[in-house]
């Protein structure tokens, strides 16, 4: 691809952030991680208490991209057919013959917002699995391809547990990144009050088309990463596992007395793939064509926090997956600057 075209498309990425900032106050790290997930071609789960504009953030992002967008409010009575679609009986008026026709559901879009995904039962949550992994839907023995690019952006509320259905580990692993949305600071909260209590209307510009998004996704995979950083990434993922057959990565007794004693199950190979892809996407957001150590460290919490299953000891000691990830990154020795 022409280097001038690449620079123009990368400049548009910065403009996307500026457009989002017209509506969303602060949350720069959340917006950055959301962009990383999209550029890496993965799905994203946003968690935060009510009122932190998670839904508004996703819908604003969709408006800045020239992509199809559908939002579904997940509820306890939501059925899989409400997402995937169903067959309807139609009649050919010329022949009078009746036939079944597949009516596509809201999943057939570029950006699918699963709002409060943990409020719907596992059967409906599982309806997303095939779409998220395979980028197609099966119904009645037929396979229907989803539009490209395709992203599932889901939100969930960590506070209310009554009437909710926590996502199983298998489905959590399908999300490339697990983003935590925190409270705004005082200055940001004052700005939120100013913006939302007047008649101010914001017009957003659509900046990136589906073709441009697919082009940038392809470019992300061409970003260079050194063998030393690939080895470092592998070490991070393997050190999350309490035991390994490989003696070079199996923690000794003193190490197990630290963060390893809180881990029930470690991250699988998909975590390493996600770390590399997200690091490449972060590099391209910085207009760089190679991954450095900081790229990996920056994306590691959002990539690993939902892929490490903690045990009862961690719950008793009030240890979180984020604190385990922080200890893990301090424990694994990074490559030297010359090699990285």
Topology order in helix (H) and strand (E) letters? HHEHEEHEEEHEEEHEHEHHHEHHEHH
How many strands, which pairing sense, and closed or not: the largest β-sheet? 5 strands, parallel
**Which of globular, elongated, flat, extended, rod-shaped describes the shape?**
globular
Q: Averaging pLDDT over every residue, what do you get?
A: 83
| The named CATH superfamily of the largest domain | P-loop containing nucleotide triphosphate hydrolases
Low-confidence parts = 253-257
State the distance separating the first and last CA atoms: 27 Å
Total number of beta strands? 13
Radius of gyration: 22 Å
Q: Supply the number of structural domains.
A: 2
Query: Order of strands side by side in the largest beta sheet?
Result: 3-6-9-1-10
The portion of residues assigned to helices is: 40-55%
Kindly report the oligomeric state of this protein: single chain
Secondary structure category: alpha/beta
CATH architecture of the largest domain: 3-Layer(aba) Sandwich
Write down the CATH class of the largest domain.
Alpha Beta
